[in-house]
Write a structure and sequence with these properties.
- There is one protein chain.
- Strand 2 and strand 3 (61-66) form a beta hairpin.
- It is elongated, with a radius of gyration of 21 Å.
- The protein has helices spanning 17-37, 79-101; strands at residues 2-11, 46-55, 61-66, 110-120.
- A four-stranded antiparallel β-sheet has the order 1-4-2-3, with helices on one face.
- It contains two helices and four strands; from the N terminus they run E-H-E-E-H-E.
- It is an alpha+beta fold.
- The longest helix has 23 residues, at 79-101.
């Protein structure tokens, strides 16, 4: 398991969706590179993405999971997809904020403070080692 996180300080608006996607790709690359340095097999690696969100003017942030399957891909993405993605994320964040803090913040702006990626990968198979039978008592 390897994680990477970086500061973001972007508003959660459709026009910043591609920038957020670039940030998520950047932290994923950092996490993957760390695993490669540790000689970990990336055959079945899974990346999990998170955005640390908070309402403008408030200090209470919540780390929200983001499915990359829901993120609009490519520069030719229809703007409608970016609006729907942002609205869905905003809705889920508002619901979670209400559950955690008991306050509905309405249409207040949302900021992305940080982006984070956790990559989980399997280890390379290790050759089994032969253990020799020991004669006599075990040493304490």
């Amino acid at each position: 398991v390897q994680e990477a996180q970086e500061s973001c300080a972007l508003p959660l608006v459709p026009s910043e969706t591609q920038n957020l996607c670039g940030r998520l790709a950047s932290v994923a690359t950092k996490a993957l590179n760390q695993l490669i340095k540790q000689d970990v097999s990336l055959n079945q690696a899974q990346a999990h993405f998170f955005l640390n969100l908070r309402f403008e003017g408030l200090d209470h942030a919540i780390m929200m999971p983001v499915s990359v399957l829901d993120v609009p891909q490519g520069k030719n993405t229809v703007e409608k997809d970016e609006i729907v993605w942002e609205e869905n994320l905003r809705k889920h964040f508002g619901e979670r904020y209400l559950m955690e803090f008991g306050t509905d913040m309405g249409d207040r702006g949302v900021l992305v403070d940080d982006v984070r990626c956790r990559v989980i990968a399997g280890q390379k198979a290790m050759a089994p080692k032969r253990v020799e039978k020991q004669q006599g008592p075990l040493d304490a």
